[in-house]
Amino acid sequence: MSTPTDHGGPDEPSATLALTPDGRPVYDRGDTVCVIGAGASGLTAVKNLKEHGFGVDCYERETGIGGAWNWRHDRSPVYASTHLISSRPFTQFPDFPMPDSWPDYPHHSQLLAYLERYVDHFDLRQHVWFGTEVVRIEPVAGDRWDVTTRSTGGYGPERTSRYSAVVVANGHNWSPKLPEYEGLAEFRGETMHASAYKDPAQLRGKRVLVVGAGNTGCDVAVEAAQQAATCWHSTRRGYWYAPKYVLGRPADQVNDLMLMLRVPRRVRQWLYHRTLRLTVGDLTRFGLPKPDHRVYETHPIANSQLVYYVGHGRITPVPDVRRFHPYAVELTDGREIDPDLVVFATGYLTRFEFLDPKLLGDDDGVGRPTLHLNAFPGAIRRSPWWACSSRTRGSSRSRTGRRCSSPGCCGCVSTAPSGRRRSPRRSPPEPGSATRVGSRRAVGTGSRSVTSTTCAPSSAPSTSWRRSSGEREECSGAEPRSRERKGAQVSGLRIVRGREWARPVPPARREVLSTLPDLEQGRPPLLFVPGFGHGAWAFAEHWLEHAASRGFPAHAMSLRGHGGSEPAPEASLRAYAHDVVQVVAELPRQAVLVGHGAGALVVAHALARYPARAGVLAAPVFGGWGMLGAALRRNPLGTLPALWGGRLRLNRRQLFSPELPDTVARAHLTRLGRAGRRAQWRLLFPGGLEPAVGNPPVLVLGSPDDRVVPTAALTRTARRYGVAPLLFPGMGHDLMLDARWREPIDAVLDWLVKEPAPTVVPV
């Protein structure tokens, strides 16, 4: 069991409000939110509630995180060969990407490792109480909820705590839905639900009948084709079997590219049918039933091997089962087959053992709750409640367990009164004002912006928050009826789509230099991002070792095409931001991003994709025609070639102060490289910046004597974040290499020591 959280763990003494019917006290947890389940959805809820200033208690009945994806758990439906059916960009959390080195379709063990890294990176484990199961949840007066818990297995006394809101994220792929067939009880062969299937050895040498044509049923049928003596696959209707790759790319990325290009659904359906007919042919000639629906109208079945084994005679398609006999199974077409083993891949029931089904609109108790927006029980939609359920009546949604198109479905955050959120600890500085620093060691005083961003969960799984007809939202494998724009707002949720999914950035080898402190002091790691032409070496000269000497784990990276990273002459600004988020996600803890020059612009884009502890923009080059004009006036010969895709050559006067010895300055100039042409051109048209995820504090610093970034441009950048720029007179553009390099890094480190953690401002 984890230790109590900083907001008070469940075992911390709290006010006793009342007594339960059996005389036990009820402990008031104040404004704390209760999260049930530490799977993908529960962890997302914990992270985002914590990020938005709420206290969180998470109860997990197992001894580890991961939910259905942790094969060690008793209720996990994962089997040995489970892989995702959605590619990495559609599975990962948008603010915590999976490594580029992973395959397009990761194995379930990799997804569990990913969730483990997610928990440790954002320090969520302290909020999770393992080995604790929820016995019941009861609504009480004042829109509060009494949650009764005990040790898993029924050991120990029960404890009741009162919470202001509850998030139900217990998953639904654990209660098997078994069909009822005439004569099934008299069948002498072996029967099992797919939830009990773990290894192909269970099928070896047997005559196997697989009932069900979902993704799990198709997987089991394919493994039976490889291991069993005979395999029959029983389906009630025809389906479209989507290949995992189309035109050499993951199929979901190709489809999303067409969505991004706004290709009408009818056209996409025609293209899919035409492609399938040209590559596979008519599926009915293999004995498969003809689909009774168009593609994209139901949850997709992604399996590239089923048709292959059907064509090789290793899988025999058969219709639905009519009845069972002691030694045979009768089909609806009158045929009889004699399987040794029947595997029912017939899905699961959505069950909440600790809740009265009537609270969820499931009056008959059949495991089909009726949820407003697929998240809120209709009868109590105004209460502070958030239910994460991945399958509801009348909607097709991506599945959380087994082989799914998302590691979890994320619902809507119920907005508590603004008084329950943390407020900023100080007011913002006067816009346009600046703090001048002339001493050897300066303390940064820039404050974070108090402009509140949307309360959307930044870690909602990237598998499509889509707007459906009317006002309902659904996370669906089926195609939405209406199309959304990139960045569209859906009931307060910002949709991150477009090229991030349809055309992922290709991987590249990146150089990362690290210097760690001799003694771990619990301070956040720093990731330094150099500007165009510079590499990690620029920070390794002084700043890395100095930051480590003050207890900060320090890392510096080279963007692709720079330093020791892989050459990339056509790299874009999006690729650079992708590199930053990839590197920072590999760090053990939530990090501070420090960008210099054009690297500050890269960091600004990365802050919209990663919830950093803080952001530091040193001598930020955000581009624009005004900055180009200043560069042409001061260094026309070095600037003009960059307009035609050539190398941008900055001179000594632009980068360094006169205090730096000429020999040292020339040595630094010889190490400068070139940025990608597309990234350089992007500086001419910088466009708008998305808001930073998690409202991190931001520090902007530079020099009034910088011959690359005019003071007016520095002030405009600081005004974007509602802060005052921190100025270091007499220094050049390359603050980390100049003669007085200690002053800015000490100011940054002092600011980080004093700056509180990111908080949410009342809307």
Automatic annotation (TrEMBL):
The residues covered by the AB hydrolase-1 domain are 526-739
Q: Which family does it belong to?
A: Belongs to the FMO family.
Keyword list, A-Z: FAD, Flavoprotein, NADP, Oxidoreductase
Family matches, as InterPro entries: AB_hydrolase_1, AB_hydrolase_fold, FAD/NAD-bd_sf, Flavin_mOase, Flavin_mOase-like, FMO-like
Gene Ontology molecular function, alphabetical: flavin adenine dinucleotide binding; N,N-dimethylaniline monooxygenase activity; NADP binding
Composition bias (Basic and acidic residues) maps to: 468-487
NADP recorded as keyword = yes
Query: What name does this protein carry?
Result: Predicted flavoprotein CzcO associated with the cation diffusion facilitator CzcD
PANTHER family linked: DIMETHYLANILINE MONOOXYGENASE
- Residue ranges annotated as compositionally biased, kind Low complexity, are 443-467
Residues of the region (Disordered) are 1-23, 389-408, 415-491
Pfam families the record matches: Abhydrolase_6 (PF12697), FMO-like (PF00743)
Q: What organism, scientifically named, is this protein from?
A: Micromonospora pallida
Coiled-coil boundaries: none
